[in-house]
Design goal:
The protein has 142 residues and is α+β, with helices and mostly antiparallel strands. 23% of the residues lie in helices and 49% in strands. The protein is built from two helices and nine strands, in the order H-H-E-E-E-E-E-E-E-E-E.
């Protein structure tokens, strides 16, 4: 390779690295920002649960000590739906992944990866062992 071609390649690689860095930094929220958004709000949506073989909607509430509750309602609006059950969980957020460890025997672990919050919507990819990953959207309850 000629010297001029080497310089051109070097500039090209620097440009590619800069683009990757820019996209990486602008496409995700910091864990602290997500934490602040989660606190003091209830988040409602479908986490793939069912109770008595009927789908349920989850209403998650996060407490700043790393615990929380999941009030589950038979599918429909939580405001007019019949309660199904109330579960508790431990939670953490690390590298944009929210981990929920439900206090069941054996414990049930859910992860929402690639998570971001914009306005009143929380979005990410839900992962549960043995299940297919699925996109998830939770709405902040007003």
């Amino acid at each position: 390779m000629k010297n001029s071609e080497m310089k051109m390649m070097k500039h090209f690689m620097q440009l590619v690295a800069l683009c990757v860095l820019t996209v990486g930094l602008s496409s995700c929220q910091k864990d602290e920002e997500i934490y602040d958004e989660l606190m003091g709000s209830e988040w409602v949506g479908d986490l793939g649960f069912s109770f008595d073989d009927r789908p349920v909607t989850s209403e998650l509430y996060f407490i700043d000590n790393g615990t929380g509750s999941d009030k589950q309602y038979y599918a429909g609006s939580a405001s007019n739906a019949k309660p199904a059950c109330n579960l508790t969980f431990q939670w953490t957020i690390k590298n944009g992944t929210l981990t929920l460890i439900y206090d069941l025997r054996p414990p049930l672990i859910l992860e929402i990866g690639g998570m971001y919050i914009k306005g009143n919507l929380l979005r990410g990819t839900l992962h549960m062992a043995g299940e297919e990953d699925m996109p998830v959207t939770l709405t902040r309850k007003k």
